[in-house]
Design a protein that fits this description.
Layout (H helix, E strand, L loop, with lengths): L3 E5 L2 E4 H4 L15 E4 L29 H22 L4 H4 L3 H6 L6 H20 L14 H10 L2 H14 L4 E8 L2 E8 L10 E7 L6 H4 L3 H8 L5 H11 L1
Antiparallel strand pairs: 1-2, 1-3, 4-5, 4-6
Length: about 250
């Protein structure tokens, strides 16, 4: 059976593990894994996009993010984006053969009648595939790598960075994301509405937080500020530092 294949730091992983998301330099501009398709038999049906498993259990981020929220967020919300993305591509063999990265980079070339569905559901798949590994049990603190030094240089202090990043998340009206990006060689903070990806911001994402209500409502209700404050305790700075190194 034909498989989508991904080059991740020099090794190849199947689509069932990483869910066909690239978000590498030039994609979400995130410096995450490079992706390539291996189409050894053009007559076979392309493998559908899949939801990548979380790199931890649903309760690993307790007490900051509750297990039920993680279960619903990953299985239901992320799962629905993947299901609807696959449905939108049904009957479009040329698009089914593309990576998620290429679909999101080439939205203008996608037929207008499915472009919105691919933008929203493909973006939701890509954003969530990036988001999950940017959290971990025992996370938080401050980055000790080059990223930490770069944050201090760009924002004056780590506390200053946190304040500005939180403001981007709080200031995003309705649903969306806040991002730390490398753009034009500099670290910047920006945000996107809905499931728009950092592609549209012209940068490479280093860190991102989901500020849709489904990410926090069960535990924090409508108090987004409390969710963002708690989220700092689970940030995976090792992963963010990897993305920063790739983005540079």
């Amino acid at each position: 059976m034909k498989r989508r294949r991904f080059v991740v730091n020099g090794s190849v992983v199947s689509a069932g593990v990483l869910g066909a998301v690239k978000f590498a330099p030039g994609v979400l501009r995130a410096g995450a894994p490079e992706i390539s398709n291996s189409n050894s038999n053009s007559e076979e049906k392309p493998v559908a996009f899949t939801v990548p498993p979380l790199p931890y259990s649903n309760d690993a981020l307790e007490p900051y993010i509750d297990a039920r929220t993680m279960e619903i967020h990953h299985d239901k919300h992320h799962g629905a984006y993947v299901t609807n993305l696959n449905k939108s591509l049904d009957g479009h063999a040329d698009l089914q053969a593309k990576s998620l990265d290429d679909l999101l980079k080439g939205l203008d070339s996608i037929p207008e009648n499915i472009r919105g569905a691919v933008r929203n559901n493909g973006g939701g798949h890509g954003n969530h595939s990036l988001f999950g590994p940017l959290m971990k049990k025992g996370g938080g603190g401050e980055p000790k790598s080059d990223l930490g030094s770069a944050i201090t240089a760009a924002f004056g202090s780590f506390a200053g960075f946190q304040e500005k990043f939180a403001a981007a998340g709080l200031g995003r009206f309705g649903s969306g994301w806040a991002w730390l990006l490398v753009r034009d060689g500099k670290l910047v903070i920006d945000s996107t509405p809905n499931q728009d990806t950092p592609y549209l911001l012209g940068g490479k994402a280093v860190l991102g937080i989901d500020v849709w209500e489904h990410a926090y409502y069960l535990k924090y209700q409508n108090v987004r500020a409390d969710y963002i404050k708690a989220w700092w305790n689970v940030v995976n700075w090792d992963r963010a530092s990897e993305l920063y190194a790739s983005a540079k």
